[in-house]
Structure prediction request, 403 residues.
Amino acid sequence: MVKVQKFKNGLTCAIKKREDLNSVTVTVWLKAGASYENEKNRGVAHFLEHMLFNGSANFPPGYIDREVESIGGEINAATSYDYTYYYITAPAECTERVIELLAELVLNPLLSEEMVEKEKPIVLEEIARSQDNPQEVFVEKFAEKLYRKAPYKYPILGFKETVESFSAETLREFYRKFYTPDRMVVVVVGNVNESQTEKLLEERFGKFERKPEKIPTPETEDVGERSGEFEMKSSLVAVPYVQMGWLLPPANRNRDVYLELLDSLLSSGRSSLLYRELKEKGLVFSTSSNYQNLLFGSNYSVTLMTETVEKAVEKTLALMRSIEEIPREEFEIAKEKLIKNEIFSRESGEAEADAIGFALSVMDEVEYFSEYIEDLKNAKYEEFLKIVSFLKEKPLIGYLIPQ
Prediction:
């Protein structure tokens, strides 16, 4: 059971006691990803994530990393479109120290001009490496063509021009605006004392005050057919890579469970539809599907690596158009497989903390996590066929082929 509480300052905390673990994972989730950037500061959310590791009001750069390492822990962070999160995993007996260090990292960053200039070459190198990778460039171009309004058409890393223009004030402005208690969720999963942990969280995070600003909601993508084709050539590519994509409504608990089921049915394991019909029959070297659940317009994609491009694409589209012919038994098998996978993944404290953090910060609904297995069990075959009928529409198709 997840214990969820909102402090007076508007910050939400969640604690999941796990007596089977010897560790604790503490994560801080923020509704402050790349979706909330503008034309002048593309890449600022990711850059700010880097900057939080470059010194705080009380600790010099590198101190927190060394402290976490000294207690046998791990510290890291990630920036996505709809969120940014920071986490530390360490032995359970170090819970108090972990909370103290993570609070210092997130709530008291220095964001000095000197460290911004030191960090710029690192982030610019990251952008340069991504531009040297034809598959990353292709995926960015695909998103740019799939989305017309929603912020997902822009790369999370931002652009060379915007990053070069960043000053310490650029970072501070984004930090002040989006790193507010009402947009923050702290999750603790591990072998901890719940009441003591709650007091520690209130002491370190519950007193953090910053007045929320009115944040404009990013544009939501219009759902509709986005058919068409485009091609990209590269001398660094040995085997053609094909991606098909469909636009979907924003992430939603009632729909998402069916789209995860579709993923399981299409590409989870050797018994999956795409593996049987494409890989086993020698039409592709590899194939996968992916549901990307996003706040302002989700998407579904199928990818192929193949030398018989025309045949593989034709067969894949035929499979998608005939999705309503999937037997009920296969749907039930996919459901059982997904339930088992979810139960297995939850054995990891880190994975469970991630799932809880996403549910509370992005979806603002703890049931997105706590009721997920029950939602899967209750999923209906007829509703599944209705929700996945979008696969009969023409997708956007991109081809990345050898020069």
The chain is about 45% helix and 20% strand. The two ends are 54 Å apart (CA to CA).
